[in-house]
Amino acid sequence: MPLTVAAFYQFVALPDFRALRAPLQAFCAARGIKGSILLAEEGINATVAGSAEAIAGLIDELRQGTLFSGRLDNLELKYSQAAAMPFQRLKVRLKREIVTLGDPTADPTRQVGTYVSAADWNALIASPDTVVLDTRNAFEVAMGTFEGAIDPGLTSFGQFKDFVATALDPGRHKRIAMFCTGGIRCEKASALLLARGFSEVYHLKGGILRYLEDVPEAESRWRGGCFVFDERVALGHGLQVQAAAAIQDNAEGGSDEQL
């Protein structure tokens, strides 16, 4: 039987995040779940794998159980499959941020940009007055991206704030649409842009993974593979594991356009 892979996050105030680590680790370990879970005062971010029953039990506990007391009722959650366990062990880590940007003004628990569904994404990025930004690292962008998207050339997400300071101008760049793997980086990036005076900020809800799951390949503006941080390496439409040759054949379509 294939294993279920669950990728999820939620920005939510968790002042007791340190106390949550041990019971969450014990819950997962008892059910054979492996993967990575990050806990911080600003929320939770994870990709884990296990049997369908084990993963269903974990999600039920997160949403409705006593551990988080109903605070994770708005998880951004995506499922995929793996033929073999894609993780070697279980890690539950305490962090300052669940996705590291290093700018305290970027607070997704206070404000974020406008969510755009996968069904509406093509129309938004096709508009000539929309600046489309890939908020992922450069090596991820090289594997695949949306047609016309701009690569900020990041080696780490923390550099995104510097890119904004030097390459973007609220007066010139009126409409910005951003995307990332699962939605978490572009959600935090949207909070940063709003804090810096950009007024029309959009981000792809559920990220590339949701888009690949929901949008038929014949209608897709995605080119290449979507890098994932486990042993599957890259996923394509329908969240199917992609072979390296297929990624290379379909990777054209990014942009060297300057802002």
Automatic annotation (TrEMBL):
Catalysis: reaction(s): uridine(34) in tRNA + AH2 + O2 = 5-hydroxyuridine(34) in tRNA + A + H2O
Enzyme type, top EC level: oxidoreductase
All residue ranges annotated as the Rhodanese domain in the record: 126-220
InterPro entries noted in UniProt: Rhodanese-like_dom, Rhodanese-like_dom_sf, TrhO, TRHO_N
Single GO MF descriptor: oxidoreductase activity, acting on paired donors, with incorporation or reduction of molecular oxygen
Pfam families (alphabetical): Rhodanese, UPF0176_N
GO biological process: tRNA modification
Enzyme Commission (EC) number: 1.14.-.-
Keywords of this entry: Oxidoreductase, Transferase, tRNA processing
Endpoints of the signal sequence: none
CDD domains: RHOD_YceA
Function (record text): Catalyzes oxygen-dependent 5-hydroxyuridine (ho5U) modification at position 34 in tRNAs.
Family, similarity comment: Belongs to the TrhO family.
PANTHER family: RHODANESE-LIKE DOMAIN-CONTAINING PROTEIN 7-RELATED (PTHR43268:SF3), THIOSULFATE SULFURTRANSFERASE/RHODANESE-LIKE DOMAIN-CONTAINING PROTEIN 2 (PTHR43268)
Protein name as it appears in the record: tRNA uridine(34) hydroxylase
